[in-house]
Amino acid sequence: MQAYDINVHALAGIRSDGAADTLLDIREPDEVGICAIENSLWVPMQQVPEHVEILPREHPLIVLCHRGVCSARAMNFLRISGFDNDWNLAGGIGAWARLVEPGMPRY
């Protein structure tokens, strides 16, 4: 794990505690059509720069993709853009489906 990674178990804990967070799903439409984590904000990776102003800064912003690689890049872009509350979901939705929601479709 990298310095600004959060694992799926920690995210599941945050969500079950009812703490404020925003889960930013940066995958493509066909990927989101297969599976998604409930109550996620969807902005495809290429459109993130256009949406920086609407992304929350007052609580954790957790960025996810399929495996955690593209979301790490997006998180780094957000850090450069002045965010200090953003985190990368290590392992992405693939890890979430394996470890938290095993009934979730995978690809």
What does this molecule look like?
The protein has about 110 residues and is α/β, with parallel strands linked by helices. It contains 4 helices and 5 strands; from the N terminus they run E-H-E-H-E-E-H-E-H. It has helices at about 10-15, 30-35, 70-80, 90-100, and strands at about 5, 20-25, 40, 60-65, 85-90. The mean pLDDT is about 95.
Descriptive key words:
alpha/beta, Oxidized Rhodanese, domain 1, five-stranded parallel β-sheet, 107 residues, single chain, 5 strands
Strand order in space, largest sheet:
1-5-4-2-3
Low-pLDDT ranges = none
List the secondary-structure elements in sequence, H or E: EHEHEEHEH
Oligomer: single chain
* Main pleated-sheet profile: 5 strands, parallel
Percent of residues in beta strands:
5-15%
Class by alpha and beta content: alpha/beta
How many structural domains can be distinguished in the coordinates? 1
Shape: globular
Per DSSP, the total helix count is 4
Number of strands: 5
CATH homologous superfamily caption: Rhodanese-like domain
Query: What is the residue-mean pLDDT, rounded to a whole number?
Result: 95
In helices, the fraction of residues equals 25-40%
Rounded to an integer, what's the Rg over CA atoms?
13 Å
CATH first level: Alpha Beta
The first-to-last residue Cα distance is 22 Å
CATH fold-level name: Oxidized Rhodanese, domain 1
CATH architecture: 3-Layer(aba) Sandwich
